């Protein structure tokens, strides 16, 4: 099986109080029994820490018959990111983006702008075609990706089966719309 990640990130570049909110979300998930409350070596990289999948994860997933959870498996933990990060597929990512105002393709300029976005010099991007400006997450991406200083990386979880209600509550708890990014490694 190839490794994969299912990432949930709020659609905002600079999340207010990202570290505090990360702890709140972790308490919520561990309280539901979805993840273990203590860090363990279940991250994607050798020795990387994460929060192991707990048996309660089945309550937030609608797994097809015959599918089982990777409980106790290495590299199947939740990693939480609280530094500015680009959450995007690693394979076959086409770097396409569109302006929500003029609807033109602006991917090349937007992805070049990430050199300014990444160090936190700005959260916004201005369309080179019509001068519309918004948080970079407000632009159109045909392939889901997110740009934020808060992200939840579910390593080797069958995230495509997360229940809609769970994703809606995740968004409500974050106070922002979320973007779901699937990554095959």
Radius of gyration: 17 Å
Structural class: alpha+beta
Shape: elongated
N- to C-terminal distance: 10 Å
Number of extended strands: 10
Largest sheet: 6 strands, antiparallel
Oligomeric state, counting identical vs distinct chains: single chain
Strand order of the largest sheet: 2-3-4-9-1-10
How many distinct helices? 3
- Mean of pLDDT: 95
Percentage beta strand: 15-25%
Order of helices and strands: EHEEEEHEEEEHE
Low-confidence stretches: none
In percent, how helical is the residue content? 10-25%
List the helices and strands and how they pair.
Elements: E1 4-10, H1 18-31, E2 35-40, E3 50-53, E4 77-81, E5 85-87, H2 107-117, E6 124-126, E7 133-135, E8 146-148, E9 151-155, H3 164-174, E10 178-184
Antiparallel strand pairs: 1-9, 1-10, 2-3, 3-4, 4-9, 5-8, 6-7
Descriptive tags:
185 residues, alpha+beta, six-stranded antiparallel β-sheet, two-stranded antiparallel sheet
How would you describe what is shown here?
It is a single chain. This protein has a 6-stranded antiparallel beta sheet with strand order 2-3-4-9-1-10. Strands 5-8 form a two-stranded antiparallel ribbon. The protein has helices at residues 18-31, 107-117, 164-174, and strands at residues 4-10, 35-40, 50-53, 77-81, 85-87, 124-126, 133-135, 146-148, 151-155, 178-184. The relative contact order is 0.29. A hairpin with a 6-residue loop joins strand 6 and strand 7 (133-135). It has 185 residues and is an alpha+beta fold. The radius of gyration is 17 Å and the shape is elongated. The longest helix has 14 residues, at 18-31.
């Amino acid at each position: 099986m190839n490794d994969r990640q299912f990432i949930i990130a709020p659609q905002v570049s600079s999340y207010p109080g990202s570290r505090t909110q990360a702890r709140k979300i972790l308490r919520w998930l561990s309280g539901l029994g979805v993840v273990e409350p203590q860090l363990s070596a279940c991250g994607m990289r050798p020795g990387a820490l994460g929060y192991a999948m707990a048996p309660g994860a089945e309550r937030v997933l609608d797994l097809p018959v015959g599918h089982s959870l990777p409980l106790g498996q290495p590299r199947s933990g939740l990693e939480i990111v609280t530094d500015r990060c680009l959450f995007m597929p690693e394979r076959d990512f086409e770097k396409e983006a569109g302006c929500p105002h003029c609807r033109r393709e602006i991917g090349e300029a937007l992805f070049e702008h990430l050199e300014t976005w990444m160090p936190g010099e700005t959260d916004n991007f201005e369309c080179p075609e019509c001068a519309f400006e918004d948080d970079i997450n407000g632009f159109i991406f045909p392939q889901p990706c997110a740009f934020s200083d808060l992200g939840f990386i579910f390593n080797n979880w069958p995230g495509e089966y997360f229940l809609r209600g769970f994703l809606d509550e995740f968004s409500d708890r974050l106070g922002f719309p979320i973007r779901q990014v699937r990554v095959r490694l």
